[in-house]
Batch of 4 targets.
Target 1
Amino acid sequence: MAAQCVTKVELNVSCDNLLDKDIGSKSDPLCVLFLNSSGQQWYEIVSSKKLTRPLALRNGRPAGKGSITISAEEIKDNRVVLFEMEARKLDNKDLFGKSDPYLEFHKQTSDGTWLLVHRTEVIKNNLNPVWRPFKISLNSLCYGDMDKTIKVECYDYDSDGSHDLIGTFQATMTQLKEASRSSPVEFECINEKKRQKKKGYKNSGVVSVKQCEITVECTFLDYIMGGCQLNFTVGVDFTSSSGDLLFPDSLHYISPNGVNEYLTAIWSVGVVVQDYDADKMFPAFGFGAQIPPQWQVSHEFPMNFSPSNPYCKGIQGIVEAYRACLPQIKLYGPTNFSPIINHVARFAAAATQQQTASQYFVLLIITDGVITDLDETRQAIVNAAKLPMSIIIVGVGGADFSAMEFLDSDSGALRSPSGEVANRDIVQFVPFRQFQNAPKEALAQCVLAEIP
């Protein structure tokens, strides 16, 4: 599949004449697209640009006059448009209260039809709404053509689906991008039916574009296709908090069928990440164990006990190194993350100084316990946030992982003990037990969430 994934395709789905399945209001349609992976691929749909088919019920009978249309186009433009918009003095379309306005953006296709590409939030009971900032890809908005006409419609939302048109206007990106907070670009919202009926009609309100900024937003796939090399390093927690590995209640205990929760996590998460590493050679380290021959505690020892060549071939190689390592070490402690984070950070720092193909480093830590060196780890993460590096922490077992949630600073920027703020959020914590029975796609989405 990876070899075939050489382009991005945008699908736009619309339906006409749907059956009304509700009594007191209109249907609330949901469209689900299924990808057939059994050998029959979607190339015909993608290449045909536009496909319309009649809808059928589950028993095969026609669903009234309902039809579905799928428009496909290749995406080669990764520019996005950031909008800030508001309106004033909109027409009131409600008898009780005020209008609940929202905006719809439409682009014109090659056959002249208008295609809905974006709908804003609904602002309740307000004739002078201010919408939250929103993004639309430039390709979705106007095929990347700055002079192509865009239609914007303003509606009054009704819960029964009979939304009332307040007014509409048309513009081009060339006009819209002139907007700034100090000098907004304004458009009269025109309701053509009302203008024809009402003498002296001026408009149905004014829509003000306060910001229209075009930026380039590269995706994960853009970087991979652009030559960025991802380097994955695996760190496994061998502290004694998981219990004696000779007893079944230990997370390191290998059951008669040859697995444990560590192995399951290594395999499940590894399958997600290995496809993005070109050479499939992964450095794999253990931490928190006493290792031979001196039996000193180490927090960054190669699981294959080869300091000069700590690489394992593929996920299977990591699994084999883990199995071979277990009988040779003694689980100990404490649970220190900072040594292995700093270890990978040194390679990331060295890579930034080389004028070669771009490289990005991902450290995957699989742990079962409460972190011991929290302050040192915070400092290590803040330092690493300046480098091309991300950290995925997978928690196995049922321990208290509140410290891991803290490091995954989704609710606020992580700070070092001295108060230095991390440049960005580079840590993603994954509570593995929540995903053991989930689809692979759900785990993949969570695992890769903090990789930019």
Target 2
Amino acid sequence: MTLRVVVADDQALVRTGFRMIIDARDDLEVAGEAADGREAVRLTRELAPDVVLMDVRMPVVDGIEATRQIVRSGSPARVLVLTTWDVDAHVVDALRAGASGFLLKDIRPGELVDAIRVTARGDALLAPTVLGRILDRFLRTTPDPAPPPSLRELSGREREVLTLIGQALSNAEIAGHLRLSEATVKNHVSAVLRKLGVRDRVQAVVAAYDHGLVQPRRP
């Protein structure tokens, strides 16, 4: 199956570079290009891509707001945010808007291709250079006073799994920690996402921090 990608960036040279990298792969193709956030939203609606490569800083509508509109529309497209700015606020805003991943633009071509594939299958993706810092300084430090009904629906084991997802552990790492098979962990992860009503693991991380299941480490 060929994964279809919309590239959204206000610089034509950047879009051309991404197109060359993507179209060189047999399993990927650029379905369309957008020069601003509004056009990215429109093309996502019209072309139904699997992944949107979304620049943060664009005219008319920025990448964060465009991501928010795409997610709220119910589009199944995954948004992979790219920026030249290694700034925590952008990461948090992107995650809050519903992005499935965050990478810096200096990523190598092969890593970009892998990132598109990972994002398309619904796995969380954050640049390694920002992941640890974001998990330590994430969102809020005080949990909601009353857990939402969706969180109360989780079983004890599912809450354990969600807590470990919030610590950025992979399924294999969670399996080792809980002494379960990876297949069992995968089933628990799927149940957690379904009960919380979130799109992917990165939104589960947001929920884990929001509701106090994971606390930022103090310096």
Target 3
Amino acid sequence: MSEIGGEEKRGWFGRLKAGLSRSAGQLGSSIGALFTKRKLDQDALDELEETLIQADLGITTAGKIVAAIAKDRFEKDITAEEIRAALAESVADLLRPVEQPLAFDAALPGPQVILVVGVNGVGKTTTIGKIASRLRDEGKSVMLAAGDTFRAAAVEQLKIWGERTGAPVLSRETGADAAGLAYDALAEARAKQIDVLLVDTAGRLHNKADLMAELAKIVRVMKKLDPAAPHNVLLVLDATTGQNALNQVATFREICAVTGLVVTKLDGTARGGVLVAIADKFGLPVHFVGVGEQAADLQPFAAEAFARALAGLEQPPAA
């Protein structure tokens, strides 16, 4: 089994750090104001915890991080730089268990089916295109299924990515049955011996039971052709939604057995810390993070790099 992803491209940490600059700036300015020639006493810890909560790390996760920072430093003099380093270390420790590349199993009898889900506007279609681009660069054959049959714009966007990546796109008329399209796409991908089938879906409002039931139907229908399909269910989350992303994970995981996460739009928010809260609460693999519109702006998740960028520190030392 190989990994979909591989080495980080040169310069990725710089883009990641730039993308997280708003999140890091908010944290850094607060930490700088708190720790100017100060002991790490209980008042300081309480203020630090509040700062982390405001940065969308969540109450429970913030408490864990503060406890870890205080363990060997309580009542000792500490600088803002030392706090940032300790923060990065604690965050990295929480994130390492979810740093798992998306794996590709060459031994599968048919295509590896990756179902991409999420609410409206999180960037599912763009994420599919970027993953397809990575896969094609690695020499894998890819097919795209335009399962968002209610939005003509989504179909057109996927077709554009198909042209860019040389991947065929299966689509139907507006309003067509998405489950039927997914079934047809899997049948065609099997017939053509495609390596990976990426299935787009409409933006599902996480509090709409009927729409979520339709998503569950897509899964059931594909299993008629391949009981193991979909092999991956990727939930795309928009970092700008902050703590609401936690609700989305809980809901989608119940409906369609989410296997991994992609976190997008980290470059447009000061709420990048929500990724830490999600990882701590759910423990789901985080396969990719996105900080821009270009294909190269979606990269495999790296715990230490993310933690250091969030804390406003420089690139982690080479192993």
Target 4
Amino acid sequence: MPADTSAWLWLLPVLVLLSLLARVMILRQQAGHWKIAAFDGCRDLIGGSLLYGLTAPPLGLCAVLLGSMLIGWEFHPAALLLGALLSYVGGLLPALACGALAGIARPWLPRWPGTLACVLLGAALGAAWFVGIGWSGSLRSSLVPALSGAIGALAAALFHLRHN
């Protein structure tokens, strides 16, 4: 990674930790003690991170690949399998961050507006990650990461926010 383009990517874990701290501070009175609020916040953070991190990258990239294969009228099952395996290379960290932020904000996310917020967050993090690591500065080149991030976040959010 070039040092000049990826320096701001360190803000991602800082954003997640500050969001967790804000949740604990806001919900500590409702939970009865700050330790209970911190436990609930960490549980939702870890659950969201694992769900989004494990499911969103392969689902999102395979959906984009399948769509491009259907447009070109060429179907390659090996490309889907390879895409599912290689999706973790570029999509794991944005998916973990999206899941962590969705888990932290879960008490305030109703089902459908929350799903839309997760889709927008997944698209933004997917595109920003690839632009940040020096993929290319153009918006056109970040369309595939944004689209696969949005589709992966949609699939994970539908499951994650089903009881909200």
